[in-house]
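TA notes, week 10

Several of you asked for a full example with nothing omitted. So below is the full record: structure tokens for the whole chain, then the designed sequence directly under it. When grading your own attempts, check the secondary structure regions first.
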């Protein structure tokens, strides 16, 4: 005898439909990523050249993109798969004192730009992550990086927004659904880390 309440059955059906809808969106977005291979290869080359020449990668983003910044920086300063020397990478999202001080004393839109100005050097690389391409504080960071003669890689979504033309390499996930863009960003980020490791290993730099 089925004792499950009808209301629960309705909720279960809704969740099931939402799961299927999300999965279909995810698969559609990931199938489209094959068109980004050239941009991913170019970004991997830029990352590799930066670190091989003594520079560092600086990641920034908001919300889920802040989490991706920390995740990817840790894959490089720690390791992705193989044991190897640490690679110079840091996330500009992790210092709560710096973030709150800058936001309070200046403006929230400068929280990354001031850190880039303080820590960035010519030859370093900013990795600007924004699912909309419109995040004002990430845009300001990219503008500052350009002024300091740093290189910039954008992990972006939608149509690339204001950030796309500010980046040396723009990897734009063609979706307007934030969750799907974030899922693609972490896949692309892992791929970039792996490509960088492989290229540096082949060059005898690890």
């Amino acid at each position: 005898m089925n004792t499950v309440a009808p209301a629960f059955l309705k909720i279960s059906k809704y969740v099931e439909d939402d799961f299927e809808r999300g999965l279909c969106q995810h698969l559609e977005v990931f199938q489209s990523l094959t068109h980004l291979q050239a941009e991913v290869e170019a970004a991997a080359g830029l990352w590799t050249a930066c670190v091989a020449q003594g520079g560092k990668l600086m990641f920034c983003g908001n919300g889920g993109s802040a989490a991706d910044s920390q995740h990817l920086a840790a894959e490089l300063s720690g390791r992705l798969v193989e044991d190897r020397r640490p690679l110079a990478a840091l996330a500009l999202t992790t210092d709560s004192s710096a973030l709150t001080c800058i936001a309070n004393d200046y403006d929230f839109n400068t929280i990354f730009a001031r850190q880039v100005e303080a820590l960035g050097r010519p030859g370093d690389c900013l990795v600007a992550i924004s699912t909309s391409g419109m995040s004002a504080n990430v845009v300001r960071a990219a503008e500052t990086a350009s002024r300091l003669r740093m290189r910039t890689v954008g992990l972006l979504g939608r149509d690339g927004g204001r950030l796309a033309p500010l980046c040396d390499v723009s990897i734009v996930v063609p979706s307007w659904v934030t969750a799907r863009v974030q899922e693609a960003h972490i896949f692309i980020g892992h791929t970039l880390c792996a490509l960088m490791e492989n290229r540096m290993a082949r060059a005898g730099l690890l």
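The mean pLDDT is 93. Use that as a sanity check on your answer.
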